[in-house]
Structures are given as structure tokens and as C-alpha cells.
Amino acid sequence: MRAVLQRVDRASVSVEGRIVGEIGKGLMILVCAMQGDTEAQAEKLAAKIAKLRIFKDDQGKMNLAVKDAGNAALIVSQFTLAADLRGNRPGFSYAAAPDDGNRLYEHFAARIAAEGISVAKGIFGADMDVSLVNQGPVTIWMDTDTL
Fold this sequence. Notes:
Radius of gyration: 15 Å
CATH architecture: 3-Layer(bba) Sandwich
CATH topology: D-tyrosyl-trna(Tyr) Deacylase, Chain: A
Order of helices and strands: EEEHEEEHEE
Largest sheet: 6 strands, mixed
């Protein structure tokens, strides 16, 4: 699985002009299930993200994980993270099939919530508008193949 994390002051996702998920301070997580990914990979990614210390402590150092800082996560499925860029027009054949992608997206979100983190979500497969204020900026790319 792949994910892009952004530390945010606030973030929201809308579908057809209606906000379906929003958070204040926390993590905006764009996540993509790849072909062949399993629940074990979703769990590994969720555990790593939950423990990742990218929030500032009282001394201004990045020593706190999202939960430790009392923050939330907005999780949005983003199949374009699977882009094959060999040509000039991206291909997305590396992304998991929609049924598998949705199952792994939901499993990943449930594992983040099981870590004690408040979770808001987008709608899998929907055409979404995402708004955020990236704080720092802090943006981190992750792939379970490299964890």
C-alpha cells in the first residue's frame, strides 16, 4: 500500500458540494491499495503512521505521534498514487481492483481508528474535492514495500 501524509491545521473532503469528512489539526492521509496488497500490509501501514512522530512537542521538536498530540486523521482513497509514469499519460493498472481497494481502504481506516485516533473519511470511488492547510509544510510519502 502507498500513502501520502500531510500534517494539517485543518482538512475536509466534499462530494457534490457536501462535506463528508473533516478534521482540525491532524493528518490528511491519501491512501492507495496496490495489486496484491493484503490486510497485513494495511495493518503495517496503519501501525507505522500511528506511531510516526511528526507533531511538535512543547519544545517545538517533532516528537509526538498523531494520537499523542490529540489530533485526528482524514483518510481519503487515492488510486492515482499507483500511477505508472513510463509514458506521458499515467496508467493505473498497478492499483488494486475496486472491490479489493475498497476493502483494504476500509480495513486501513479501521486500523487507524483502533489505534485510538479519531478518523474521518472520504467516499471510496467518489469524485471528491479535498481542501487542506498543510502545516509546516510536512508531507511524507510511504510505501509498505519500503517499511
